[in-house]
From TrEMBL:
One GO MF term attached to the UniProt entry: L-methionine-(R)-S-oxide reductase activity
GAF domain sequence ranges: 64-153
Name of protein: GAF domain-containing protein
Gene Ontology cellular component terms for the protein in this record: cytosol
Organism: Clostridium collagenovorans DSM 3089
SUPFAM superfamilies, per the entry: GAF domain-like
Pfam families, per database record: GAF
Domain of life according to the entry: Bacteria
UniProt similarity note: Belongs to the free Met sulfoxide reductase family.
Lineage: Bacteria, Bacillati, Bacillota, Clostridia, Eubacteriales
Length: 167
């Protein structure tokens, strides 16, 4: 059982460290990938402020397919190279987009989204998917969020066999 006592008194960086500790605890005590990824998106949703979507897309048959998430219903499939998520896969690159409406080919699943951060999930040099977080605020994501989300994804890669998810 998760208890988030005292989280409102934490600094932003303390919350992000706590987020990764929660994830580590979840991953080390549960082996089911779907359960872990579902809780991973819930952990982000609880810890981050000013976001409207947090979740995963995974590679299946050469395209990204929606995975566990928190937020409004989202696009089911994204072609590699399209939008921020597809670009992150195609370029094996993190994207921190201050204004999604200025990103060429942005895919608007939720018209309230204004900024986005996408971290590719890479295991053994293969991109298996992305962690995608949207915000209704411009320039919501900073180097601080990027730093802790990179660690978040590294923890996922350490505990989850993404080959199994991308079948």
């Amino acid at each position: 059982m998760f208890k988030l006592n005292g989280i409102e008194k934490m600094t932003i960086e303390q919350k992000y460290r706590y987020m990764n500790n929660l994830l580590q605890s979840q991953l080390s005590s549960e082996k089911d990938a779907l359960a872990n990824l579902s809780n991973a998106s819930a952990i982000i949703n609880v810890i981050f402020h000013d976001i409207n979507w947090a979740g995963f897309y995974f590679m299946r048959n050469e395209e990204l397919v929606l995975g566990p998430f928190q937020g409004l219903p989202a696009c089911n499939r994204i072609k590699v190279g399209n939008g921020v998520c597809g670009s992150a896969v195609a370029n094996k690159k993190i994207y921190r987009v201050e204004n999604v409406h200025e990103f060429p080919g942005h895919i608007a699943c939720d018209c309230a989204s204004k900024s986005e951060i996408v971290i590719p999930i890479i295991q053994n040099d293969v991109v298996y998917g992305v962690l995608d977080i949207d915000s209704p605020k411009l320039s919501r994501f900073t180097e601080l969020e990027e730093k802790y989300l990179i660690k978040f994804v590294e923890l996922l890669v350490e505990y989850i066999d993404f080959k199994e998810i991308s079948k």
